[in-house]
Amino acid sequence: MRVEPLVEIRNISMKYQSPEGEIPALKDISLDVREGEFVSIVGPSGCGKSTLLNIIARLILPSSGERQEYLQQRKNYRIKVICSQIFLLAALLVLWEIAANLRLIDPFITSQPSRVMRTLVSLHNEGGLYYHIGITVFETVVGFVLGTIRIYSS
Questions:
Q1: Does 74 score more than 70 pLDDT?
Q2: d(Cα 44, Cα 80) in Å, to the nearest integer?
Q3: Is residue 51 pLDDT above 80, yes or no?
Q4: Do 28 and 11 touch, CB atoms closer than 8 A?
Q5: Max alpha carbon distance in the chain (Å)?
C-alpha cells in the first residue's frame, strides 16, 4: 500500500533578483515527506533552507517547478470558466430578448432585457432607483429578522 506524501515538491527552483543579476537560491529540489517521517534540513547560511521552507508553507512562489506549472494551469482553468460564464450569460440574454420579440414567451410576464435596462436607466435618471433599492433591502432585512426571530422563539 502506497502512502501519499503530506509534502511533495518536484523540481523546484528559486532565483532572486539583485542589482548584480539573478542569484540562485534553489535548483531542481524534489522532496517527499510522508506521515511519521522526520526531516532535517541542514546547510550553511544562505544555502536556501529558509527559502525551501517558505515555498513549502506557500509564503513565496518558486521561480520554476511543478508547483508553478500547476498554479498556471489553475489560473488558465479559472480564466476559461469565467469566460464561459460570461458567454453563457450573454447568450441567455440574447435568447431571452429574441424569444420576447418573437412572442415565444410573454414579454408582459417575463419582461425582456432591453425593457429592464430602459427601466433601470430611467429610474436612475429620475433619482428613484436608489430609493427603490433601499426599500427592497429594508424589506429583505426585516423579513429575514422576523423569520429568524419566529424560528428561534418557537
A1: yes
A2: 45
A3: yes
A4: yes
A5: 78
The overall average pLDDT reported for the chain is: 85
In sequence order, what are the beta bridge partners of 13? 64
* 125 φ/ψ angles, rounded to the nearest 5 degrees: -65, -35
Where exactly are the structural domains of the chain? 7-64, 66-105, 112-154
Say which residue the cell 532535517 belongs to. 40
Written in H, E and C, the secondary structure of 28-43 is: EEEEEECCCCCCCCCC
Closest CA to 107 of 98, 120, 118, 94: 98
pLDDT exceeds 60 at position 154? no
Element (H, E) at 130: helix 129-153
**Residue 27 identity:** K
**Distance (Å, whole) CA 113 – CA 93:** 7
